[in-house]
């Protein structure tokens, strides 16, 4: 029984004896399973066994309403002044009410997005032993990530793997199956798009037009390519645990498997995938910059039992020394630099296992 073909009995109503048996069975068969998979069962054996002994299992994915995000057609920006202004206002309203929206006619060619995914698949199909090497693709030790090293329960275990690449490190990459050249091409397009979106959103707030040009260099952002392997017990763990993004904006290209959920009006809702759109969400820095007008929304990815999922997230970030200050008074947040924010996150994650985030900087 491989990782791909394990099945739970009835959703989150997993038979405890079967669950324990599956854990031991997986231990015996890890060496026979596909070599590409991270050793989730081996690494998190204690957590899985502890959960098997619990009388009640955490249910994470049942009964969620599926909604479509607000759709912004960026081609309207090139029409008359009225259509342009309506498009910008629609974007701002989505950032206020949802913290998320999706965009079409965004200028990133479908061919490039498809090529990025194909190169991404090639990377993740490499043997785990190769992916986990310290110099994989000639990147830093922390570029390839999987699971959650700080997980203490199924609630904070991410059943996924990722390659997180700072744009300043792209030049160090090995030219592996055209991955480097494809990322360079995509990063240029995504950076231009993110800057445009950030500037349009700033118009509703009175932020100076060149704010983002001054504070975000082409190399200050990052790209995270995600793979979510089939998960044997999708009702008991996440693909990625609930979190907010640190940056100004995130641009996400995802496949049609689905799984993205966001917290809206106090409840979790599922986002219906749109094959023609990119997903955009507000990050912590833009919430602070906007003085709480735009919302950095908690979101997560649920696990899928039978189908792997791929996504690529472009994080539009300022330089490390950039100071984030609310654009209006009275300020909700004290001034802080990207460096200070990152250091606070590291402290909180180490101490509590959670990011905590903007609440640390409230006045």
From TrEMBL:
The segments labelled Disordered in the record are: 1-35
Q: Mind listing the GO molecular function terms for this protein?
A: metal ion binding; oxidoreductase activity
Cross-referenced InterPro entries, in alphabetical order?
Answer: DIOX_N, IPNS-like_FE2OG_OXY, IPNS-like_sf, Iron_ascorbate_oxido_reductase, Oxoglu/Fe-dep_dioxygenase_dom
Which ranges of the sequence are coiled-coil? 176-203
Keywords assigned by UniProt, alphabetized? Coiled coil, Iron, Metal-binding, Oxidoreductase
Q: Which domain of life does this protein belong to?
A: Eukaryota
Basic and acidic residues compositional bias: what residue ranges? Answer: 9-28
SUPFAM superfamilies per the UniProt record, alphabetical = Clavaminate synthase-like
What region holds the Fe2OG dioxygenase domain?
Answer: 219-318
Family per similarity comment: Belongs to the iron/ascorbate-dependent oxidoreductase family.
The molecule here is called Fe2OG dioxygenase domain-containing protein
The species is: Gossypium stocksii
């Amino acid at each position: 029984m491989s990782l791909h073909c394990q099945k739970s009995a009835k959703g989150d109503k997993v038979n405890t004896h079967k669950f324990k048996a599956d854990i031991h069975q997986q231990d015996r068969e890890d060496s026979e399973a596909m070599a590409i998979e991270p050793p989730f069962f081996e690494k998190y054996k204690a957590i899985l066994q502890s959960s098997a002994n619990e009388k009640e299992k955490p249910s994470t994915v049942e009964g969620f309403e599926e909604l479509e995000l607000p759709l912004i057609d960026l081609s309207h920006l090139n029409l008359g002044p009225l259509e342009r202004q309506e498009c910008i206002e629609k974007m701002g309203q989505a950032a206020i009410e949802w913290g998320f929206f999706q965009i079409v006619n965004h200028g990133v060619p479908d061919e490039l997005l498809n090529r990025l995914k194909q190169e991404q698949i090639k990377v993740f199909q490499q043997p785990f032993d190769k992916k986990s090497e310290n110099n994989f693709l000639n990147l830093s030790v922390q570029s390839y990530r999987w699971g959650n090293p700080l997980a203490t329960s199924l609630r904070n275990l991410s059943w996924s793997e990722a390659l997180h690449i700072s744009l300043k490190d792209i030049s160090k990459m090995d030219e592996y199956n055209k991955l480097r050249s494809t990322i360079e091409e995509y990063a240029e397009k995504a950076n231009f798009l993110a800057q445009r979106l950030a500037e349009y959103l700033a118009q509703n707030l009175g932020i100076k037009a060149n704010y983002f040009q001054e504070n975000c260099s082409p190399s200050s952002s990052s790209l995270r390519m995600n793979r979510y392997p089939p998960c044997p017990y999708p009702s008991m763990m996440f693909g990625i645990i609930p979190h907010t993004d640190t940056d100004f904006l995130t641009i996400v290209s995802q496949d049609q498997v689905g799984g993205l959920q966001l917290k809206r009006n106090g409840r979790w809702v599922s986002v219906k995938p749109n094959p023609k759109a990119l997903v955009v969400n507000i990050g912590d820095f833009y919430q602070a910059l906007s003085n709480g007008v735009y919302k950095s929304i908690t979101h997560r990815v649920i696990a899928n039992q039978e189908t792997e999922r791929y996504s690529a997230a472009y994080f539009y970030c300022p330089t490390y020394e950039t100071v984030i200050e609310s654009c209006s008074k009275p300020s909700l947040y004290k001034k802080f630099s990207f460096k200070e924010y990152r250091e606070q996150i590291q402290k909180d994650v180490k101490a509590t296992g959670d990011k905590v985030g903007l609440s640390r900087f409230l006045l």
